[in-house]
């Protein structure tokens, strides 16, 4: 018995598959452009009751833990500290630093909120955003004598991460947390030898001998290194002043600790870099004690986003403007633990 004949593949199958793929790509591109067009067309001033969006952030609240009339806001700092928008292709684009500052401001504007639990898991990052978060937490405390900040450090509170945490009245670290790295770093590459070997010459037109400081195609002179070192030392001195103001560590001792090294939680406690080793239950208990309250309701903020907002924020994955490219390649002074 002969087997049934194998049906012949249509010669147009590949063409149809190609057309389907091209149609899907065209649809995706169309959706992205509609989002961009809608965002630009409908963007305008939105007036909220009470004031501007950054002055009086309109955030939703999610009940997290406990109960009572006294409220504590849980605000999280996770990952690198940089002012840049993060998010997926169709997700909301969020500037992490702005989001944290808005949450702190929302807590400060709410008279019912008497505490912030600032949860840190960060190796640090840019100097100015770290300082902005520190100052915002400090301003929250100073806005009322009965307000407190408790820092809860999880995996890591290094460099800029620790810088923000020292604004707290009390720092609790998990037993396995990495803490410290009090210092400043600036790193870059120098390509001069490589470009000389392959015959590439640098052409730079400048108004002064230090205008192209850290030009990767030229040797860095001792004078230029001294200029940069002075700036690094200034930022390092500021970091140490902040730590000394809040942690009451003698200058001589702090100079020994502030050489960029990291510490285990036990060692950090021995040096008074933190107040306590513990977990979330310890954070809850300590917050109650600082507020002199038997019960506290802990909550977190979140930003509600509707479908139209998501659509207007759609962007091409290749949508990087000139400032983004510049930001990626420019050396920076950082409060960052960078092994």
Overview of this structure, please?
By secondary structure, this protein is an alpha/beta fold. The chain is built from 11 helices and 13 strands. The chain has helices at residues 13-42, 96-109, 127-142, 160-165, 192-198, 222-247, 251-257, 265-270, 280-291, 307-312, 322-329; strands at residues 60-66, 71-78, 85-86, 94-95, 113-122, 124-126, 148-158, 170-173, 178-180, 262-264, 276-277, 297-302, 334-336. Helix 2 packs parallel to helix 3. It is globular.
CATH architecture, by name, is: Alpha-Beta Complex
Instruction: Kindly identify the CATH topology.
Output: 2-enoyl-CoA Hydratase, Chain A, domain 1
Q: Which superfamily, in CATH terms, is the homologous superfamily?
A: 2-enoyl-CoA Hydratase, Chain A, domain 1
- Which stretches are poorly predicted, pLDDT < 50 over at least 5 residues? 320-326
Q: How far do the termini sit from each other?
A: 73 Å
* Secondary-structure element string: HEEEEHEEHEHEEHHHEHEHEHHE
Helix run count = 11
Number of domains: 1
Strand content: 15-25%
Radius of gyration over alpha carbons?
26 Å
Shape: globular
What's the average pLDDT? 84
Classified by CATH, the class is Alpha Beta
Main beta-sheet strand count, sense and barrel state: 9 strands, mixed
Helicity, as a percent range: 40-55%
Oligomer: single chain
Query: What is the structural class?
Result: alpha/beta
Number of strands: 13
